[in-house]
Amino acid sequence: MTVLKDFADLAPHTITLEPLSTIGLYAEPTYGTSASYSALVIYEKKLVAGPDNREVTSNTTVYIPSSSASAAESDRLTLPDGATPRIIRVDRWADGNGQYAITLYCG
Predict the structure, then answer these.
(1) pLDDT tier at 1 (50, 70, 90 boundaries)?
(2) For residues 60 and 41, is the Cβ–Cβ distance under 8 A?
């Protein structure tokens, strides 16, 4: 069994990611086509390094077992409960076969 398959069995939730498309004249964001993924969502507080390497409190960690998932801090994430927290940090996980998961830290 592959790492991706083993990890996918532990992802009971469904989340949606929408990539940032443009920022309008009045700073309103518009987003591109959404994609849904199986994920493991854990509601816990932890300190993580933000985009500027300062410590920031993350309230939610989202593990997405996918070889093709992509996310950025500017994208919109929708959790299973409908919340849309800000993405603080994105970690990509890979081995010799390529990417097998991403982790999103949200606040």
Answers:
(1) very low
(2) yes
